[in-house]
Design brief:
Blueprint: H1 3-15, H2 22-35, H3 43-48, H4 59-71
């Protein structure tokens, strides 16, 4: 997994400690991308790092969230 993608998700989890389920985390990630609050990266740049906000295939995003939660000690 791309290091930038993983660090983005870790950042979102740290900024949104009450986001516990996939929908809440996805919403927080989308807000962070829209606001470019993580190193000024938006949806396009995050897509290049491997983060897709497509709801048609969420399995990769769920795996990435799980990895970030494990690294942050949330799982």
């Amino acid at each position: 997994m791309n290091r930038i993608a993983l660090e983005f998700v870790r950042y979102v989890l740290e900024q949104n400690p009450k986001a516990a389920d996939f929908v809440a985390i996805y919403d927080a990630m989308s807000r962070a991308a829209c606001a470019r609050s993580f190193h000024n990266l938006g949806h396009e740049e995050l897509a290049l790092a491997g983060i897709s906000f497509s709801l048609l295939d969420t399995s990769k995003l769920e795996d990435l969230i799980s990895q970030a939660q494990n690294l942050n000690g949330l799982k």
